[in-house]
């Protein structure tokens, strides 16, 4: 884990009652797993990573194609898919106590490819590290992101096939959100955000909108809440 995040992470864990332990880690281990698509009309994707590097893209023929790297055996990711009625739920979890974070020379990375033909609700709980979410080609119904410490980049550029909401709840990290310039965009930010930098949207009162917001058939609404250190909203 990058050293620059350690003081902030220590403070955040202290507030939440979590404990940091040191572990030198072992040799890197790798494994891949896929989940076949079924005929569910929609799928909820629930990603829960405590600390590491997270990469999410589109392009899978399966429902998901996942490649994992880790060097702490207890952190081997768990992948589960269930279905109830016409709705599926895909869950990928970093196991271990929610009150313990292991520090040291850890290697922990998820590379996930999602299917872009299945309507999805994406829920990401990301504690610390770096996350890059390239979501613009997915058939999104909604996105919810809870982040703690580190850096997050979310790219929503692409064809907006349905209107959907994006909710971001922050800790003390940095977030960059790229938006399609020709889509209907409405963005609000609340809470103890350290700084906000907006490009390509116009400021109206307490929110920002794209020039095409009123005319757009499909819209993206962005709601940012919490103590994010810095956020960038870029429509291009």
From TrEMBL:
- Say which domain of life the source belongs to: Bacteria
Q: Which Pfam families match?
A: LiaF-like_C (PF09922), Toast_rack_N (PF17115)
Q: Which residues form the DUF2154 domain?
A: 38-128
Q: Which residues form the Cell wall-active antibiotics response LiaF-like C-terminal domain?
A: 140-232
What is this protein called in UniProt?
A: DUF2154 domain-containing protein
